[in-house]
Design brief:
Blueprint: E1 4-11, H1 28-40, E2 41-47, H2 48-59, H3 70-75, E3 77-81, E4 93-96, H4 100-109, E5 114-118, H5 122-129, E6 135-141, E7 161-168, E8 174-180
Parallel strand pairs: 1-5, 1-6, 2-3, 2-5, 3-4
Antiparallel strand pairs: 6-8, 7-8
Length: about 180
């Protein structure tokens, strides 16, 4: 069975939106770990808000430059959980418009590599509640963004996790990897 791995960039004050604040911290160490995640994943899952942010950012990047990651993000099979997106423009994108839990259960049952999910919101909350998320990797960045951009509250749910790994980069970024407590 494939693993579903959520990988989310977050600030010290809990902001996940518009992660341009990660750029000063995306060094060789971060690139190596991000590359190992994408090397292991042959599919990407996202909600509509993440799709709306990632599509314009990645589809406009030069795929011939291997340092940008654009070749991966533009070619990987992408699944978007949405009730409103009907005709995605991003290459190799399929909309999961039916029951989310059933659709992701079927995706995980297929042969293949990991399924990577970026961002954290209602889709992730529903999948955690259903027991479908295998790992949550929080990339904690040593920055406070503040202001009105602080992440919206998640749906009302509770989940408990075990810490399974930590990595501390020289940039100050900490990657804390958690698995659902069984």
């Amino acid at each position: 069975m494939r693993k579903l791995i959520n990988s989310t960039y977050i600030t010290l004050d809990g902001v996940i939106e518009n992660p341009m604040w990660t750029m000063p911290f995306f060094d060789e160490e971060a690139g190596a770990l991000a590359g190992s995640q994408t090397d292991a994943a042959d599919a990407m899952l996202m909600g509509r808000a993440t799709y709306d942010g990632m599509f314009p950012a990645w589809s406009s990047r030069d795929e011939s430059d291997p340092t940008t990651g654009a070749a991966y993000f533009n070619s990987v099979k992408k699944y978007v959980a949405s009730r409103t997106l009907t005709n995605p423009e991003w290459r190799n994108t399929e909309v999961l418009s039916g029951d989310l839990v059933e659709a992701v259960t079927a995706l995980k049952a297929q042969e293949g590599g990991d399924i990577i999910q970026y961002g954290f919101g209602a889709v992730t909350a529903a999948l955690i509640t259903a027991g479908l998320v295998d790992e949550v990797r929080l990339w904690i960045h040593p920055v406070i963004v503040g202001g009105a951009s602080v992440s919206a509250p998640l749906p009302d749910f509770t989940a408990t996790f075990d810490l399974v790994d930590t990595k501390v980069f020289t940039s100050g970024v900490i990657i804390a990897t958690y698995a659902p407590k069984v």
